[in-house]
Design a protein that fits this description.
With 467 residues, this protein is mainly beta. It has five helices and 32 strands.
Length: 467
Amino acid sequence: MKICAAGGRGGLKGQELIMKRALSYALLLAAGCGQGVHSKPGSDANGADAADGPPGGFTVSGQVVGIDGQPVVGDSVAVLGAPGVLSDANGRFTITGVSPPYDLGVADSHSTSAILYRGLTRPDPLVVFAPLTGPSYTATISGTVTGGTFGANDCVAVRFESPDGVSPTSSDSSGIVPVCADSGGAYTVTVTWHGPSVTSGTLRALWLRDYSPTSVPDGYGGYGSIPLTLSAGATLTGKNVALAAVSTANISGTMTAAAGFVPTLRSLRIQFADGEPGLWYMIRDSNTSGLGASFDYVVPVIAGATFVMVGGATSAADDVSTRVLPALAPGTGIDVSVPAIAEASAPADNATGVTGATPFSWSAGPAQSVYVASFGAAAGFPAYTVITTQLGTTLGDFAQLAMPLPSGTMYGWQVSEVAPFQSMDDYASASGLAWQDYADYSLPSATSYPTTPYSVSLPDGRSFYTQ
């Protein structure tokens, strides 16, 4: 069951969005599913007065940020068992007298959603709790791409990227099909970004020969880029990009999946080394019946560019497991091993009489997994997220954030995992933010991207009814 909406996800389309959705159920849905009217604990809005926890212990001074790394202001923050405070103008909070390990909860300023980090010991946790925080700006760029005669089946993919935002990854809602110039090379892109009203970045164009969003391109006719600075509301015309020929190399290897899973998706995205989120599709190889174990893909050799391999496998129950290998240089040989995933154990699907004391449990995922358990209902009801390294949780602790589980309500829930993280303290840090920002590859880079392989899952969900 898809949380906060009826129906499931559509096979490979769910895999294409796995990077966003495994994360987004914890963040985007938590931010948008509920519209409760509960009061919440806290001190003054600037957070100047630290809350006093139990006697002894140490001081926790952390920060609440959005997925873009920008501060979240005015959210309720509490260490369970201690009075709450509000995040200040910089998203920061201080709670004294904390005894580790501790559980840290945050509720949004509208009391519509809450998140709980269980089992922390670090004194400076970083909590990621909102999709995007700063003001949004747009600008439009148009021009012509030159440097070749483009075939009817070619795509000259055009995209603007800056540390603050990007033009659309896709020309449709799938996130797959790139924005292509027309047969004469003319293009128009609209850029959206968050944060400053002026952003500087790069306009890029890559010529994909005989391109289809469901297959591998036949080759690459050229690549070009120009630097651009955009101001809010601007319309820039005549921004022409000249393509230059590129050499090619291969990324090859084998792909295997855990028992009960069939490899159904391999995709390669290009990433540039200038801090801009160039995670746009270049190669997508998929087959719902299963892919062969070996692969050998031709990629362009572009200065400063590496590649991200995403290997997805699907079970008969429509669960999706994904292995991500970032920072691949052209000419690399790789092994894509897609692991088993966590599966919900209890309560049973469509369980009734669920309360805050009802235990939710799941099986273990890959080693060093952090589990993200997400709970959502229809609009008007609060949404909950629990992040933990344990194999279960309850929801009763959200009452301390003035967001108790409502009675007589149908909820959907699922648990996904991301690995490897050494601990909850590792996740509640810049390392966790880097992965979460990277997972939604249409967003700007708030920190550096991960450079080592990791796994993430999107299992099928369950539903339950509260008492």
